[in-house]
Amino acid sequence: MSGLLGKLSPAKRVTSNNDLPLFYVNQTSMEPQRRDTPRVSVTFAELLMNVEDARNDQSTTRRTLEMASPITSSTSSFDTWTSAPASSLSSSPFVLSFKDLTYSVKNQKRFNPLACYGKSRNGSSVNTKILLNSISGEAHEGEMMAVLGASGSGKSTLIDALANRIAKDSLKGSITLNGEVLESRLQKVISAYVMQDDLLFPMLTVEETLMFSAEFRLPRSLSKKKKKARVQALIDQLGLRNAAKTVIGDEGHRGVSGGERRRVSIGIDIIHDPIILFLDEPTSGLDSTSAYMVIKVLQRIAQSGSIVIMSIHQPSYRIMGLLDKLIFLSRGNTVYSGSPTHLPQFFSEFEHPIPENENKTEFALDLIRELENSAEGTKTLVEFHKQWRAKQAPSYNNNRNNNVTLKEAITASISRGKLVSGATNNTSNLTTSFQTFANPFWIEMIVIGKRAILNSRRQPELLAMRLGAVMVTGIILATMFTNLDNSPKGVQERLGFFAFAMSTTFYTCAEAIPVFLQERYIFMRETAYNAYRRSSYVLSQSIISIPALIFLSASFAATTFWAVGLAGGSSGFLFFYLTILASFWAGSSFVTFLSGVVSNVMLGFTVVVAILAYFLLFSGFFISRDRIPLYWIWFHYLSLVKYPYEGVLQNEFEDPTKCFVRGVQIFDNSPLGQVPEAMKLTLLKSMSGVLGINVTAETCVTTGIDILKQQGITDISKWNCLWITVAWGFFFRVLFYFALLIGSKNKRR
């Protein structure tokens, strides 16, 4: 310990809100560090616990410990004030081993009538493409392993295989951690996966994004103050202090830079301090400086006691100086695996020595490409690598002998504060000693809802546009159908108003399609490693959608009900409003379900518009229920528009004392409607004589009940229509949950 004290390079002091020093961050040097010196690993969980101890006991002796590698004149350091006992720094190394990983896919080509050889029964030819061919290797705690190769070499496939993102039935070979098979449930808890694309909410700031991740991944037992301290520590570790209050941004909103966005993507997946971190091309699309800073951050993560495995396309010279292990792939085969320092020796023995002033990685990749384009391909290089590894294996195994079991290693990590996602100290059974989720479902619902509301508040134009569409439609209907009278034409106009109004409520819900599609891959990333339950997401999204639906329904109902002159007074308005609300709820749920099934926005809009048109066709407006053919009657009962349409019709025409056709009005919808009034009265007298009933000009011929019978609306009461509409909404939310459960596995087949 004494050797570590006092060896501090120039550093920038970072303090907490109450001015207690957390740790020091050196920003003066970004040069590669030496790997041949011993390290002292301190996890961020230790740091936070020790900070909390220091706050509670100001008399505690402050001691400075290194978080990164030892400080030399040209190395950067991460130093922390802490009162951690020396025993907490003891390391129990993890070793991730993979052997003979093989993965292939079947490519089914289109039918070719001229080719008869090698066809399947349906006439199409099937070829098997090998993406991974007996890949083996080993990654150790504190090290960074990089997988390199040209596009299509199998880099991302290997990362997916190690990260348990390929179905077990399709992947051959074994993956072990400290010699024990790594079960899927355990791996989700102790590892994290950073996708190639930065999947973030654009309207959240960097600090808010990391804080929401902390609320998802860190257990409820950890206080709010500790979670905030952890986020602040992580912001400093990622070098994001200057961008902490800046929104992430997207094409329409200016935000953080590409390198900062990539570091935020890494941060949200390491908030719980995982043992293994997988990354798919973390430097893709970044300039050399930003790429170097990202890899530098990953080096710090590895040195804090994690295994870092990434795919990378073509690292620069400086990045190569940070990597501990390399695996070069060519069309699914390993052509080199080992330390970067052994590359010159390897290619020299292969009789292709690397020139002194040339980048070793670029030379290796160029040579591999040349061999791939040759007649024999990389077969000779693959065979040479096998022989070379066989010669290196004895000394390699002696230097890397690890006798620590997985149970002991995880127990030691938990005791040091690592894996703070709900792990317990009882690791007698590794699979059951970890909670599947860090928080109960109601906490998850609150956090998801809080995040969604914050996003909505920062994009008020979305609600404004939807409100504008509803209000414009309401105003048009109100001015088009103003003060309808109780005549036969008034009846037809009412039917048209109700049919259009009810269908409009469903069509305006189509805007919900891009809402989930924009979050789809964020949702898949977060649920892949158990950040929260799918049920929590569905329930939370359902609840937070209701206030907006209430507001939209009230606006539409108030705009149209009295202007059109609908019946029922205040009670009639209440039912009309509830029916509009139920329609919005059912339509929103239906569209949300479709967004969980259809992954393309344009396709989703097409499907929604088509199905809603069918619902309107079979609602009973264009053709009454009694006249629908029997082979289509089932669609009539599946129509979402049917139930609110029938409900509002009953609300309007249920009064038996209200008359809509009197005496001479029976001729209005016939050719006799154009004859003089006197002639109509004469016809009524003649009809009275024939029928034996006195029919005068004021005699009520058709009441509201008669109109309902003519429309075939007699089997379901208006309140039952309302409850059925509400039930449809819940039904589609349940279907949405199952769509997410089945469709978001995020694994290759």
Give an account of the 3D structure:
There is one protein chain. This protein has about 750 residues and is α/β, with parallel strands linked by helices. Helices cover about 50% and strands about 15% of the residues. It has a 6-stranded mixed sheet with strand order 10-11-12-7-13-14, with helices on both faces. Strands 1-2-4-3 form a 4-stranded antiparallel sheet. The model is unreliable at about 1-90 and about 115-120 (pLDDT under 50).
Summarize the model shown.
Residues 96-356 form the ABC transporter domain. The protein is 48% helix and 13% strand.
List keywords for this structure.
749 residues; alpha/beta; six-stranded mixed β-sheet; four-stranded antiparallel β-sheet; 13% strand
